[in-house]
């Protein structure tokens, strides 16, 4: 994924100025699969009292920052290599950190995004006990139903999303064609609970209003919102109420969608993958659909672009990410050259 992002951006590796190119690659929980494999090796082959492995460097791949370090090494990136961890908001937090590195003048280019591989028995069992996984479905592709009357949870997916962020003048000098332009971001914490959002969406509504103030966007200038949309009873209601509270009478005119019905919940990778989809929506002037929305919930009454993509020019878009631990993240991007 990192190689594809760099190639798509037309950037050579190693870069001519490696000290000006950074990597911000978040993971929701580090190398869980590697840790499990090594733990079984210790138990089954060497006993609980042994602390060595065949290759001591294997433990490196258990660390959350391993992905950022490896990607930087492979592509010869010598500026900062950082691994944000913010649960399901990790992807958005990673790209926001990268944007700040550029705006502070510390980097000209940052390879940013997130990855997650969480199809692990212990994690799936924990989500099942929390009651957030979809259940009682016959066809997995129709199991996750964001904003639907009959939604009952998500399915876990695995994946990664990487984006190239670049200082505007640097991109112009080399003739690059950006898909979208980063405008700004805002973050907050919903103190309602560690795994439960405020159903009224108050904290998220205030955060969206703060984002509009910081980016100097008026509420009626926003065309599209890419929602977190986990298809749980509480999340979808919280997001809907927050958007309506923040955008007032403009809310019915917003195009919205949630992608987890098609992708599953990529957890730590969700924010960067869905942000990449938002950038492509701006480029292609197409609102991606919310799939599996068959019976709208009366309480979820925004325009979710149910079932089928729709053509629309997107001058300004917002991405929302929500994470366990109640980390909230929102960002705004626009057509290139507008900000």
List the helices and strands and how they pair.
Blueprint lengths: L1 H8 L11 E7 L4 H15 L19 H10 L5 E2 L7 H14 L5 E8 L4 H10 L28 E8 L1 H6 L7 E9 L12 H14 L8 E3 L6 H15 L7 E3 L2 H4 L6 H15 L1 E2 L22 E2 L4 E8 L3 E8 L5
Parallel strand pairs: 1-2, 1-3, 6-7, 6-10
Antiparallel strand pairs: 3-4, 5-11, 8-9, 10-11
Helix pairs in contact: 4-10, 7-8
Structure at a glance:
This protein has 339 residues and is an alpha/beta fold. The protein is built from ten helices and eleven strands.
CA-based gyration radius: 20 Å
Strand order of the largest sheet: 5-11-10-6-7
Helical element count?
10
CATH topology of the largest domain: Peroxisomal Thiolase, Chain A, domain 1
SSE arrangement, N to C = HEHHEHEHEHEHEHEHHEEEE
Count of separate structural domains: 2
**Cα-to-Cα separation, first versus last residue:** 28 Å
The biggest beta sheet reads: 5 strands, mixed
What fraction of residues sit in β-strands?
Answer: 15-25%
Please identify which CATH superfamily of the largest domain we are dealing with: Thiolase/Chalcone synthase
Spans of 5+ residues with little confidence (pLDDT < 50)?
Answer: none
CATH architecture of the largest domain: 3-Layer(aba) Sandwich
- Strand runs, count: 11
CATH class of the largest domain: Alpha Beta
